[in-house]
From TrEMBL:
Belongs to the UPF0220 family. It is found in: Membrane. Keywords: Membrane, Transmembrane, Transmembrane helix. It is a multi-pass membrane protein. The chain crosses the membrane at residues 26-49, 55-74, 95-116. One of its GO terms (cellular component) is membrane. The lineage of its organism: Eukaryota, Metazoa, Chordata, Craniata, Vertebrata. This is Transmembrane protein 50A. Its main location: membrane.
Length: 124
């Protein structure tokens, strides 16, 4: 399987070095937009609490806050290259990023709990 993509030389044509973070942020934004579009559509189609529990939106809200926190910090701020001012400087940027990742993984775990508790194992 290691020789499967050796003939493909697409990565040499495009320099992803400086644009990697921008492309990743745009892709993450598109995925979040699509997720919110689907959840708002489900809330409109099933307006009663018996059909769709609207408290399940909390995971999406927390994940969106985490998404904004993570994308607000650049690599230079975490490394200390371009950020020396502010409340805590480089340490503050790292703490901000860590809290953003904690919120993101917490919302992911909570959404899995809702999936299995509310839908998969509902009849048991």
């Amino acid at each position: 399987m290691s020789g499967f993509l050796e003939g493909l030389r697409c990565s040499e044509c495009i320099d992803w070095g400086e644009k990697r973070n921008t492309i990743a942020s745009i892709a993450a934004g598109i995925l979040f937009f699509t997720g919110w579009w689907i959840i708002i559509d489900a809330a409109v189609i099933y307006p009663s609490m018996e059909e769709f529990n609207h408290s399940y939106h909390a995971c999406g809200v927390i994940a969106t806050i985490a998404f904004l926190m993570i994308n607000a910090v650049s690599n230079g701020q975490v490394r200390g290259d371009s950020y020396s001012e502010g409340c805590l400087g480089q340490t503050g940027a790292r703490i901000w990023l860590f809290i953003g990742f904690m919120l993101a993984f917490g919302s992911l775990i909570a959404s899995m709990w809702i999936l299995f508790g509310g839908y998969v194992a509902k009849g048991f």
